[in-house]
Amino acid sequence: MPMNRLRIKFFAAVRERLGVEEMALEVAPGTTAALLLERLRGEYPQAAPLLATVRVAANQEFVEDAHVLGDGDEVAIIPPISGG
Amino acid sequence: MIELTDAVIDPARLIAAVAGPDCGALALFLGTVRDSHEGRKVLRLSYEAYRPMALNKLQEIQIEIAQQWPGTRVALVHRLGTLGLGEISVGIAAASPHRDAAFAACRHAIEQIKAVVPIWKKEFWADGTQWVGQPESKTS
Question: Which residues on chain B are in Cβ contact (under 8 Å) with A61?
Answer without folding.
Answer: 53
